[in-house]
Structures are given as structure tokens and as C-alpha cells.
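Cont'd.
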Amino acid sequence: MRYRTLALWSLVAAAISALPATAMARIKLITLPVRERAEIQLDNPGATLVEEERIVPLVKGVNQVDFSWANTQIDPNTIVFRVIAGADGEAPKATAKPAAAKETKPLDVKVLSVSYPPNEAALVWQVSSSDSGSARVRISYLLGNLTKSFNYRAVATNDEKALILSEYMRIQNLANESFGSTGLWAGFGPRFLKPIGINETKEMLVKKFTEVPVKKTYTCDPQAHGYLDRPQNKLLVPMHYVLKNNKANRLGVAPLQYGKVRIFQDDGHGGTAFIGEDWGKFTPLDDEMRLYVGVAQDVVVKRTIDKNQQHRIAGNLFDREVVIKFEIENFKDKAVVLDISENVRAIRNELYGNNGRDIQWELGKDTTFVEGSDKEKSTFEQLVFHIKLPARGADTKAEKIVHKLHLLIKNEW
Amino acid sequence: MLLVAASVVRAENVDLSTVPTRNTVQLTIYNSEDLTLVRETRKVSFKPGANPLQFSWANTLIDPTSVELRFLTHKDKLTLLDATFPHAKPQMVYWNVQSEMDGEAMVEITYFTSGISWSADYLCIANPAETDMGLEGFVRVHNNSGEEYEDAQVRLVVGRINLVQKIAELARITPQQVEELDDTERGKFKKDALVLAIEAPLLTAQSSARKSRSEEPKQVAKEGLGEYFIYTIEGTETIRNGWSKRMRSLEAAKVPLKIQYRYRLAEYGDQLVRMYLLTNDKDSKLGTTPLPDGIVRVFRENGRDGLSFLVAQSVKYIPIGDKIELNLGPDPEVIFELIKLRTWRDNLWMQLHGANVFRKVGEAGVVVQVNSSVVGWDDHTLYTQRVRNYTKKPIDLEVRRAFGGHVVFRSELPAKNHDYQTVEYTATVKPAEKVNLLYEIIQHQGWLAKQNNVTIEKAQVKP
């Protein structure tokens, strides 16, 4: 049994060059070059690359360098062996021979072949060296069970206008190999130099964004969010925090990675209160991260179909007319903006069945959303309208606001 | 194992034999099939008269019907009288050789075995600017044949051969059973394979003993032969049973590469992928050999004194002069969205029920009766292909989209037909630029669908 999970052995025997592999001596002397430096590259979304450097003593002639691992998921096909310049940037040096030469010559080190023994997690490099000396080698390989994930902690101000967003990278080492002081890099952000032991999980702050403007939205969308009370036609109104990943909103450094966001709010008394959590989706630059915080029960939206009529154009060809009425009450003591989202195709399917065809539509004259739909957020079949809702009155009564969406659905059969 | 029996009449229970050792051995390994042709030479002493030879291969995967004996020296004085496959010992053959000489002769034994294979793989390391890469090709020989082949000349055949029956299967049945098989085509194949193998001279004992330069990586000679390409590894190799050995077969530095972003649903899935494009030719410092099927592992120097792993991808055989296309997967710094902006219908045609009468809806002066149905129309869909480039370099984009049915692709984009139902268009997106590539699809439906193809119409479309 090997005494450690990963080992590099160098067989010190120049005479090996004369021996076929089958004639390897049973008695052998090996050196155990230790890991001088290690880097864990986590920039690939599906693989973890480990690069380690060791100083390998070589003798003139052909050397055998044995690399073995046990109980770790190293992909042997990905192992790359490279001889690199030393830490001082110079080529590997030959051992000084005072009598023979005043200056040391750089070693010429070449990999001749790699052999893979049967039923063993190991490989053997045959390496030739122009002289005796030490070579700094870098061994790179993909390692399984060493994974990364991201998570966030957001602390909103008491007035919920801004927040502090801290992005953390969490590395879980189930690879059954410990790494001393090791460079860790996620492909963006800072490079960390940390040790990570077997079965350890390490969490590091990648970036802290302060004073990030946050937009609080209330949205009703019968297709996406459904109803709070279906018999009474009351829609569910979730509340979201929306962050825009750009410089103007004090983010925009890199895409925000997928991860859990725990949201806290300054309670106004020097502490914070946990107000909800959501999975933040991968958010490219200039895109929005929408975080579902909870249900807003003080904004009540009742949705009814007020009109449903069809007009024959010819034969089985019809135009259809639908009016959807929204009765809205804001019981909050603050004015808010409500986003009403409707999918026109889903309305057609709900009333007339799904004929599988895309929908041709236009807004009718009874539509009351005077500002029209949000062009940026609306698509050919999804409409988004913004409505300003006043705070409830001093008498605690909420004003009922009624809006209508009048749709002319054309050329249906 | 080759034994020379001491007497003409084989004793039942008491035997004396000598064991001529292998003089040279050559392995010709095919990567497309589990097949290796072994040619070995041995020095055998013959006495005048009958000389029994026994060749056995216990616990190996040799095809018994493929074992052949030839005399390389003293051909006029040695005659192979017969060969016997004893019923009780399936992995054995007896040859009776009639000799008119007393002395040593060189014999050659050839046979097919399975369990030895080879594979290719490639290591690419792009420079930090991703303008060129170092490319190394490797061949890896795997020996699970049950036999040790020491100091063997190794030849690797690149190409697809036809084989009507697996050698491993033949190795597990008796010669008598093999004879019952219809082996016309097998014989033809074996003959072709032998021709391939015999084209190259077998190492002589002297040349075998001459080691290659032991402190230099071995050279791999490549030469074309008919539909195949043969790699011959310099000198000899010992590949122990159960082991595999990997050697460099080609090396090229600063191979120029081009980056292209591609959308091709059928090839790369529903995503925009980043590609490294190279060519296997002399201008790219390659082109000395076709590249056999294998895994390509692509890294990039990350500019921080380390590597980034980009992808591991299988490539099919790449002939000399052909393209090498490496799919690195999606790039999080390039956002690619297809947005449907608007859909509408027009050119609606009705057919009167029970009559072969068609009317266009909305045409002046035409009244369309109630008892009619829609039979033809045009679906219009306006799309924008939105691309945002957050990289620091301009990107070249190539999009291929397939449309079923009778379709018109209307756009000002530089579009062309890739095939009858696929449109290809290209664009360049500058760093930090967001572009909207607009196009309209008009799909003739029902009675109006007369074709199944896409026509490109250069015209302005408005969102």
C-alpha cells in the first residue's frame, strides 16, 4: 500500500537505458521529489485542472519517472508532463562539476515514452537527460471530486434601495488528496493561495459589491406564477429583487455565476433580518438577476375575462376579441409599481384551445395601459405593463384601480 | 512457442524437444479492428529427412487458421509436407518438414492475433493570445494479447479494413470449427493484410539488434500505402502483456489557428460554440500525415504561468490537407439569443366545401362564402438574432439554421444556402458590441406550399 495518495518517484539508474522494461531490477533506489508548487484551475465549468511542480533529480542518460495515485480520480489520459524553466526563469541546471566545468549547462530533458502498467493507477515516463542535474517539471491532470460552487450573501438597506452583495466561491475537496498552499483560480476574480485538506470545504470571498442599486418588483403573471386564490381569481404577486449586472449598477465585472443568494435586510437597529433566499441564475453582463424574495400579500390583483367574442371573416376563419380586466388594490403604506405580464398565446389556448399556430394579435381600443407595453421586456407573445399604485389612504382604505387589456386575435381557425 | 521434436515418430508420453527462440518479431497493428499481424523469424536446425515442428500458443488470442510457416533460407532444400491441428490440444499445430540439408535455416511464422491495439491522441496547447498552438500527436499501443513481445518492430496501420469475423472469436474456437466457416472473404482479407505487412522488410537480426538512439524520442516514419497509412516506430519496442505504451508520433509548434463562433444545431446542439480551426497542411506546419481517429485534449496557456483546460474531443480521421475543427463549447462572454419579434399571417386562401373553387381572403370584389375553409396561407415571423460580445476581440460568427417546408428567408444579412433547407449567414461583432441580425421567415402553408426548400430574398426587414 502506498503511504500517500499521489506520488512521483524517480528511479536513479542511468543503466536503465540499457534495460528493457521487462528486465527492471527488483532492487531499486528511488527518490521522492516533493510537490513544490500546486495550482488548481477551476475555470472550466466541467473539469478541475491541477498543475503541480516538482524538482526531479535526473542522471545523465535515460531515467524512469513513476507517477502513481491511489483512491483519487485522476484521469490518466489527461496527464501532461512538461519540463519547465526553474523558478528563477532559467532552464534546469546540470549538477556543478568543479573540476570539469566552471559553468553549469542547461539540461536537455526529453520525454521518450510513457508506459501504463496493468491494473495500477500509475504511469511511467522514460525521460532522457543530457546530464545529471535537477529539472523542474510540471505535471497537469484533471482531477475528479474537487468541485467549486458559488453562493451569495446580500444585505439590503433598510429602505431596500441598495444592497451589499458578497460573492463567495466554495471549493469542496472530496478528491482524497490534500494540497498545501495551493493557487486557486476560478477563471475570474482574484487568485487565492490556500491549503485545502482532504474532505475539506473552503469558502472564499471572490468579490464584495457595495451600494448596488436594487429594484424591488411586484409581478403578476398567471402563466408563470399562477393564482393565490383561483375561485376568486386573485393572482399570486411575488416580490423580486432585481439586480442589473452592469457598471452603472456597480456590478458588471464578470458574469454572475449560478448560486444560492441569501438575502438579509438591515433592520434599522444595527442588525439584519433574513428575508428570503433564491437561486441566482447565471447572469451575463448587462442582464438582470431576479431574486424571488417572497409573496406580496398586500398587493391584491383580481383578474377576470370581461369579454370573449369571435367574428367570422370567412368560412372557418375568425378574428377573436378578448378583454381581460384587472382590479388592483395596494394595501401597503407605500406606493409601488406592479408589473402585469400576460402571454397572448396562453390566453388564446385557454379560451379556444391550442391550434399549434403562432399568434397574430394587436391591442384593441379598450386597452387602458396608456404607456403601452415595456418594449425591452415584451416579446411577440409576452406582454409586460407597468402600473403605478398609490399607497393606501390615510383612512387605511386602498384605492381600487381597474385596468383592461383588450386583445384582437387575428386570422384564427 | 516453437518446439523441434527429437524424433519423427512422436512419443505419446515421453518427449524431447529443443526450443528455438524468436530472432525477430514484427507487429502490424490495425486500429480499426482488434487485429494484429505478427511476423516472427526463428533459426531452426534441420536434419536430413523428416523434421517435426510444434507451434503452440496457449492462453493467447491467436487465430489458428492464420498460422503459416515459410522458409526464408534454403527454400529449395526444405519442404512443408503437412500441418496437423491435434484435436486434444486446440492451441497447437504440428508441421512436418522434409529437409534435404543438415544445418540451420531461418523460418518465418505469421499469424493473426487479437488483444493488441493502438490508439491515437493529441495534445494541443494554445498560446495566451490564441493565435497559434503547439500540437503533439501520440500513439499508444496496448498489449492484452496474453503474449510478451520483446524487441518488436511495431507498425501501426491507419485506415479502415474490412473484416468479416473477429479474430478474438476465431481464437476461441478450434481449427476444425473454423474450417466449417465460410471463409472466402476472410481469406481475401488475410491476403490483403499480408500484402500490407510484407511490403515492408522485416527487421533482420542485425537491424533488430541495432537500437535506436536511446536518448532521443523515437521517430515515427509515416508512409502511405493504398487506402492505408503505415506508421513505423523507429527501432524496436518491448510492450509487456497488460501494459500499454505511448509515444509521440508528431510534433508541431506555432500551428496557426483561427477562432470562429458557430451555431449549427445538428452538429453542436442548440448553442453558439467557440471553435479553433486549423488545417492539416504544410502551411500550418502539419500535413506530413493524416491524423488518425483519436481524442484531442486542448489546453490554453492562461497567461498566469499555467494552463487552462478547454476541452477533450474525439476527432475522426483527418486526411492531409483537411480541416481540424475543435469545438470548445459555449463562451460565457458571448451572449447569443434568438428573439421572435412578431408573427402574422397573410395571403389566406379559402376553398369552397365540396368544390374545387379557391378564393383569396380580402381581395377586392371577392365574397367568401361561409361554407369554406382555410386551405392556404403564409406565416410570417420576424426574428432578431441578438449577439453581445463581451470579449476583448472582434468575433467572427457563422450561423446555420434549417427550415422545413416551403420557406423564404428575407434579410439584408450576407446569407447563402448551405443546402436546400439550411441558410448560412455570417457577421462580425466588435468588442463590447451588441448586434441585432434581423430576418423574416415566410413559410408558405397548406395549399400554397409547393416546394420543400428555402429561397433567400435580399430585402430590408424592419422590427
